[in-house]
C-alpha cells in the first residue's frame, strides 16, 4: 500500500516512511492510495474480538507487511495495556438510541491516547530498526500535547517539542505537558492561539533543509498514522451495536477534523455508517462551511472547550481531496486561496458530496453548559465540555440509526468549566496521583518560527 499527498506533488511513500514523514513535502497530507475494503462477512467475523485484536485486523492492510505481523501485533497489544478499562473504548448507553463512546480511559484522559500510545511505539520500532533518531514536533490546543509527551517521554530514539498556547489550555492539560522530568521532553509555551502553533509546526515541515537536518516528524493528526489508529473505535462501537446488519451514526466534537475523518475512513472501508455529524463550539468554521459552501477564517475565540478552539482545520483538506474525486489541483487551489485571502469557496459538486455524508451543528458556551447540567440531571452522566457540544448537536440531528457520540475527554480535565455548568466538581482519578502538585518545567517563546527552529536545533539529538 502506498500513501499519496493531497497536493499531488510529494513522493509516494510506504507505511513506515509515511509514519515518519508527518506533513508531505508539498505541504499536503498523506492518504492511502486506495481504501482497504472489508466485506459484510469480514466485518461480521470481527464480532467478539478484543480491542487490540480488532485493531490488528483493521489496521494491518495499511501496514501491509512493512512491519512483520508478529511484531505489529505485539506493538498493538502493548499500546492498549496502558488503558484503564478492559474494553479500552467502552460504550455507555445514554438513552434508548443514544450512546456515548468513552475514549478517555488512556493515561492522559483524552481520546488522543488511543492513537498516540500506538504511534509512539510504531515510530520507536521503525527508528530503532533503521538506527535513526527523530525530532518530534506537535502543536496542541491541550490534549495532543499531554498525550504525546506521555507516549514519547524517555524514549531514546526521539526528542519531542510541544507548542502550546500559553493561558489557553486547562490547568490539568498544562500540568500534563509540563511535569515530565524526562530530558527528551520540551514543552514550549507560545504566544498566540493553537492555529499559530500549528502554523509554526507546518512552517518547520515546509523548510526542507531544516526538516532534513533535524529529521523532523510530527504527532498531530496531519500524520496519517494518527487518523488510522482512530478508525478502530468506529469499528468497535458499530460492532457492539450490531454492525454490519445495523448501521449507526456518529456525532464527533470537532476541531482539527482528524477524529471525524477517521469515521469517514471507516465508512469508506465498508463499515455501515449512516451520518457523520460535525459538532463545533463557537469556533464554528466547519459548521458555516457546510451551510454556505465557503470556508472563511474568523478570529479564534477562547471557550470552555479549549481543545476545539481551532479555525484552521487541517484534516478538512483530506476530506476535500476525497470529495473532489482526488483532484490534487482542486485541493491545491483551495489551499492557495486560504493562504492568500483566508477563505475559499467549494465547487458545488464538492460541497454536495460532503453534504451527502456529513451534517454539522454548533454549540455555544451557554448551550454546552446547559447540556452538561441537563444530561447530569436526566441521566446521571457527567459530560466534559467537548463531549457536551456533541451531545447538544446530536440531539438536533435526525438519524434513523442509533447515534454514537464520541466522548473525547474525561470531565476532570476541565473541572472548573464542569463545576460552573453542573455544580459538581469532577475529581481526577486517584491513579494520576499528585499531578497538580508536580513541579512544572517549560520554556516560554514568542510565536516566531525562527525562535522555535533555533530552540530545536540547540536541543535535538537527531541533528545531522
Ligand atoms: C477533547 C477534545 N475533543 C475534540 C477535539 C477535536 O478533535 P479533532 O481535532 O480530531 O477534530 C479535540 C482536539 O483535537 C479534543 O482534545
Ligand atoms: N485538539 C487538539 C488539537 C490538535 O489536534 P490533532 O488531532 O491534529 O493533534 C489538541 O488537543 O491538541
Automatic annotation (TrEMBL):
Residues 100-330 form the Tryptophan synthase beta chain-like PALP domain. Belongs to the threonine synthase family. Its cofactor is pyridoxal 5'-phosphate. It is an enzyme of class 4 (lyase). It comes from Tianweitania sediminis. Keywords: Amino-acid biosynthesis, Lyase, Pyridoxal phosphate, Threonine biosynthesis. One of its GO terms (biological process) is threonine biosynthetic process. It catalyses: O-phospho-L-homoserine + H2O = L-threonine + phosphate. Transmembrane segments: none annotated. This is Threonine synthase.
Amino acid at each position: 500500500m502506498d500513501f499519496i499527498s493531497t497536493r499531488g506533488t510529494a513522493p509516494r511513500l510506504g507505511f513506515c516512511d509515511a509514519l515518519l514523514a508527518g506533513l508531505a513535502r508539498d505541504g499536503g497530507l498523506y492518504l492511502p492510495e486506495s481504501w482497504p475494503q472489508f466485506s459484510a462477512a469480514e466485518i461480521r467475523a470481527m464480532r467478539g474480538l478484543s480491542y487490540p485484536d480488532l485493531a490488528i485486523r483493521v489496521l494491518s492492510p495499511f501496514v501491509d507487511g512493512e512491519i512483520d505481523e508478529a511484531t505489529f501485533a505485539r506493538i498493538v497489544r502493548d499500546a492498549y495495556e496502558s488503558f484503564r478499562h478492559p474494553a479500552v473504548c467502552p460504550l455507555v448507553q445514554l438513552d434508548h438510541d443514544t450512546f456515548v463512546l468513552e475514549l478517555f480511559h488512556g493515561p492522559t484522559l483524552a481520546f488522543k491516547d488511543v492513537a498516540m500510545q500506538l504511534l509512539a511505539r510504531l515510530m520507536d520500532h521503525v527508528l530503532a530498526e533503521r538506527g535513526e533518531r527523530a525530532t518530534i514536533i506537535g502543536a496542541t490546543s491541550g490534549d495532543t500535547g499531554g498525550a504525546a509527551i506521555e507516549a514519547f517521554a524517555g524514549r531514546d530514539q526521539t526528542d519531542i517539542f510541544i507548542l502550546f498556547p500559553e493561558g489557553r489550555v486547562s490547568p490539568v492539560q498544562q500540568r500534563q505537558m509540563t511535569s515530565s522530568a524526562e530530558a527528551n521532553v520540551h514543552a514550549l509555551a507560545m504566544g498566540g492561539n493553537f492555529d499559530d502553533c500549528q502554523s509554526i509546526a507546518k512552517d518547520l515541515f515546509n523548510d526542507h533543509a531544516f526538516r532534513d537536518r533535524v529529521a523532523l516528524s510530527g504527532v498531530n493528526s496531519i500524520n496519517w498514522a494518527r487518523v488510522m489508529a482512530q478508525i478502530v473505535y468506529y469499528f468497535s462501537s458499530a460492532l457492539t451495536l450490531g454492525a454490519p446488519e445495523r448501521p449507526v451514526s456518529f456525532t464527533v466534537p470537532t476541531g482539527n477534523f482528524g477524529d471525524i475523518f477517521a469515521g469517514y475512513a471507516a465508512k469508506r472501508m465498508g463499515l455501515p455508517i449512516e451520518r457523520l455529524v460535525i459538532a463545533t463550539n463557537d469556533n464554528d468554521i466547519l459548521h458555516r462551511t457546510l451551510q454556505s459552501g465557503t470556508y472563511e477564517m474568523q478570529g479564534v475565540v477562547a471557550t470552555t472547550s479549549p481543545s476545539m478552539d481551532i479555525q484552521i482545520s487541517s484534516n478538512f483538506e483530506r476530506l476535500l481531496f476525497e470529495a473532489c474525486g482526488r483532484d490534487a489541483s482542486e485541493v491545491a487551489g483551495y489551499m492557495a486561496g486560504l493562504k492568500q485571502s483566508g477563505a475559499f469557496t467549494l465547487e458545488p459538486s464538492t460541497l454536495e458530496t460532503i453534504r451527502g455524508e456529513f451534517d454539522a451543528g454548533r454549540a455555544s458556551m451557554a448551550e454546552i453548559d446547559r447540556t452538561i447540567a441537563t444530561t447530569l440531571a436526566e441521566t446521571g452522566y457527567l459530560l466534559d465540555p467537548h463531549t457536551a457540544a456533541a451531545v447538544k448537536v446530536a440531539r438536533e440531528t435526525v438519524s434513523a440509526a442509533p447515534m454514537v457520540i464520541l466522548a473525547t475527554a474525561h470531565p476532570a480535565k476541565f473541572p472548573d468549566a464542569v463545576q460552573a455548568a453542573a455544580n459538581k466538581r469532577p475529581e481526577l482519578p486517584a491513579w494520576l496521583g499528585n499531578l497538580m502538585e508536580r513541579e512544572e518545567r517549560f520554556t516560554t517563546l514568542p510565536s516566531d518560527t525562527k525562535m522555535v527552529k533555533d530552540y530545536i536545533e540547540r536541543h535535538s539529538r537527531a541533528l545531522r
